[in-house]
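Hi support team,

I submitted a single chain yesterday and got back a structure, but I'm not sure I'm reading the token output correctly. Could someone confirm the output below corresponds to the sequence I sent? I've pasted both exactly as they appear in my results page.

Thanks,
R.
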Amino acid sequence: MTGHDAVPRVRRGVKVAHDDVRGSDVVLFPEGVLVLNDTAAAVVRLCDGRATIADITARLADVYAGVEPADVVELVDRLRDRRVVDLDG
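Hi R., thanks for writing in. Yes, this is the structure output for that exact sequence:
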């Protein structure tokens, strides 16, 4: 499991965009497309290679109620497994 001090960054070749047809944000990557809910899109946008998972969690908690650090870690782990993000640290 990824630690709270890990620093995620969106991988090269991955693009975050809004899909007007689906009416939601998506991640476009060589292996496919992921349709994101609002909080997942916010997490991906914060994966800038500078913010730690703890930083991302704190920023999300300012906007969304009930943000749990374990949920952010789980999402980042899934994004890493799908080769959307890389982790430093």
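A quick pointer for reading it: The mean pLDDT is 94. Let us know if anything else looks off.

Best,
Support desk
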